[in-house]
User: Fold this.
Amino acid sequence: MTDDKIIHIDMGTITGDVNGNDKPLLCLGIESSCDETSASVVDSNRNVLSHIIYSQIPEHQKYGGVVPELAARAHILAIDQVIKQTLERAGKTIDDIDIIAGTAGPGLIGGVLVGWMAATGIAQSTGKPLIAVNHLEGHALVSRLHASTADGTDGKTTVDFPYLLMLASGGHCQILLVRGVGQYELIGQTLDDSAGEAFDKIAKMLGLGYPGGPIVDTRAKQGNPTAFKFPRPLCDKPGCDFSFSGIKTAGRVFLDKNPGPHSEEFINDFCASFQASVVDCIVNRLNNAIRDARVKDANPKTLVVAGGVAKNSAIRSAMEKLAKDNKMVFAAPPMNLCTDNGAMIAWAGIENYKAGKIVHEPIAPRPRWPLTEM
Ligand code: KG4
Ligand code: ZN
Assistant:
């Protein structure tokens, strides 16, 4: 692995509690469940001391998506360097670290295995406590490490339990009532594709590249959201479930009838119209979730978005407005903590350590691990 492929994410603005503990706990977090090899040192006062992401996106781009075997091999080649440099950047040695946390699932199993074995090996050889982090829990809790507002600027909000969470990533799309660490109640979920998948597939249809979400987001900013008519599946029905495959199919059918070549204006309008339908579905379903009896009973004060799709500017601002209309506070992770990263795994490691969830026996990583089975 060449050094120039390592992205040193500058987390300079992320400082934590002023009145934190005198001697905070230090956690090394390791993430490798998809196409990012990442590690981070985070302390229990919510400071990110270092954070490194080695992104494999260029390696998968020519295939239009992540190739699991290539990803696993790339994780093996990168992991030692990523961990070593993360510790160096934090100005720490492994002796200074109190907790080792690794993603133990869900995800592409070859990749998960690489990071989880690294975490297990470090913990066993040093005798330090090991935490098996559910990747989705990393996304779900990261706003408690650091919350930002819709436009990505520093949010002064501290996100306390319970909160209502929109979790939207490449593989998942769920509305959850987060009651505490390890306590997730499913309020709604997609019946077919995830939101991220829909973004990626629309981008692929238009030949825009991979990953599609950020490209569609940028294009949509320059387009007209009412230019094309995309469906709003399930929005006329009660409940909090999603369906995105109909939106994607509508796009496919239209493009088959209008094969192009397409002008820049066409592409921008198409992206804006597609994105508007996703935003409307999310707002509609969340609106019902806020009125769900279980949610009303728990009375969450904060509406949180998480997962790679949480980077989407239109979704963030629509959710901020929805929160305001319902007298809730909106919180999102800063942009560089939305997509997969080691800092969210380190933070979930700290939260789980405080909850006493330490791994004492060797455990196998899990390709599938719903948040409701914690
Ligand atoms: O959470 P994540 O990094 O990986 C998974 O755990 O799946 O999410 C990746 C997904 C991809 O589908 C990507 O296209 C989407 O997040 N994404 C976005 C944006 N940035 C990333 N989707 C919409 N708008 C964005 N700005
Ligand atoms: Zn993820």
Summary: The domain at 163-332 is CATH 3.30.420.40 (Nucleotidyltransferase; domain 5). The CA atoms of residues 304 and 331 lie 5 Å apart.
